[in-house]
Design a protein that fits this description.
3 strands, YefM-like fold, 3-stranded mixed beta sheet
Length: about 80
C-alpha cells in the first residue's frame, strides 16, 4: 500500500481519494508512523460484516454447515430388566 504523509494527504485530499478509488487502500503517516488507512466504501462494508453466522442464520439455513455423525437406527434391541422375566 502506498504511504502518504499527513501533509500530502491534507493538501492533496482529492488526489488521495481518487487514488484510493482507482488503486485501493492508501495509508497516511505522521512523522513516519502509519496512523490511518483510507479504503473504498465497498471494502469497508465487507470488513464490517460479521465473520460468523448468527444463530438465526444457522437455524434458517437450507443445508447444514457441517457433517453430524448419526449412528444408523434399528441396530439396538431393548432388553427386559433382569428379574422381571
Amino acid at each position: 500500500m502506498p504511504i502518504w504523509t499527513l501533509r500530502d494527504a491534507s493538501c492533496r485530499f482529492g488526489e488521495l481519494l481518487d487514488t484510493c478509488l482507482r488503486d485501493g487502500s492508501q495509508v497516511v503517516s505522521r512523522r513516519g508512523v502509519e496512523i490511518a488507512v483510507l479504503v473504498p466504501v465497498e471494502e469497508w462494508r465487507r470488513l464490517q460484516q460479521p465473520t460468523l453466522p448468527t444463530l438465526k442464520e444457522l437455524l434458517l439455513a437450507e443445508a447444514p454447515r457441517w457433517e453430524s455423525p448419526v449412528p444408523p437406527r434399528g441396530g439396538w434391541r431393548r432388553q427386559s430388566p433382569s428379574g422381571l422375566d
